[in-house]
Amino acid sequence: MLEATFVLIAVLILLLISSAPIAVALGLTSLVYFYYFTLIPMTQVSERLFNALNSFPLMAIPFFILAANIMSRGGISRRLTDFGAAMVGHLRGGMAITTVLACMFFAAVSGSSPATVVAVGALMIPAMVKNGYPKEFSTGLVATSGSLGILVPPSIPLIVFGIATEQNIGDLFLAGILPGILAGVMLLGMAVFVAWKKGYGNAGAGFRMSNADKLKAFRDAILALALPFLVLGGIYSGWFTPTEAAAVAVAYSLVVSLLIYREIKISQLWEVTLSSVKTSAMVMFIIANGILFTFVLASERIPGSISATINDWDLQPWQFLILVNILLLFVGCVMETSSAILILAPILLPIAMDLGIDPIHFGIVVVMNLEIGMITPPLGLNLFVASGMSGMSVVGVAKAALPSALVLLGALALVTFVPFFATAFVG
């Protein structure tokens, strides 16, 4: 057992150091284990990979990715931002408020952080710069607010956590509501404070609109505004499962974009679908190899060994949560979110439950830590997406996002030590 464990760790570290993609590193490490340390025929590896993806809840992921692409291309995200600008764009800090709220609304139907950054950033970064906000502040705010995409339900990482730990995905979605609102409100407060203190948004008065114009903006956006309520309301009322909700989001977005807004042509659907397939394939490949690696860890009883060791330390729940936060904040900087969840959640959750920590609360803490990792160098994905959209360097975006990241750390601390924020809506 010790020999196999040592080889597994060595191979995984070697592959990661050599810059192998995380999915490849997990898959090759698993293959080494199957070939040298088990009697399982190699032909069964493909079966295990297939079975890893043969999951009804996992079907929600490609649907949410497709829905996000349709919304971005079909004018839904633009109408959300236009409505926000019409309501508060004339205020000092109003465009920053619009940006955060638009990210929260888009996150509530896309489940993806990078998709939120792309959809909102493409519209709001130029608009904020045009209206008196520095590019650095605008880009940093979009990168950070976009990270709410993996916390505000429906959330792809919450789906992955539910599958990896056999927790109820609907309960995880319910648990993410209040922390998502908390983080969003804290970002709003920070953005408004900075805008007022530094005089950002002086040209925002150009967005002052008459009541008639505001009403028109509301009418234009009402179908876009209804989508989050349809998706989340359908899940929480029991009308449909998270996977069915994702399919409903695709159908609704397609009908609205194609037949009502008419901003997507039938000829463009192939491009939108192909882009979604590529993204979905990448995510699913990571998940399949992550689940395979989780099986390897379980076969070697590594989670049980780690659990026994930590239990011997006789930690209090709050001490364990501090250690978990430190670990996950570091892991989030260097590892893709789904991979981190698939590897660490099955190891850490049993320990948390032994200490009396609610598993749903723990899942939210895990995702919030990895949310901050999305805006932290060297591998924070949102930094690269925002960099490509604004023309700033990744380091520049990271510096610009630092104040917002500190705000998210504050939200993480509150949710970590006040479980009510995560369990208030869970029956």
UniProtKB/TrEMBL annotation:
GO terms for cellular component: plasma membrane. The chain crosses the membrane at residues 49-71, 83-107, 113-129, 141-164, 176-196, 217-239, 245-261, 281-298, 318-335, 342-367, 379-398, 405-426. Pfam families: DctM (PF06808). InterPro entries: DctM, TRAP_DctM. The keyword Transmembrane applies. It is found in: Cell inner membrane. GO terms for molecular function: transmembrane transporter activity. Keywords: Cell inner membrane, Cell membrane, Membrane, Transmembrane, Transmembrane helix. Its main location: membrane. The keyword Transmembrane applies. Residues 10-419 form the TRAP C4-dicarboxylate transport system permease DctM subunit domain. It is a multi-pass membrane protein. This is C4-dicarboxylate transporter DctM subunit. It comes from Brevibacterium marinum.
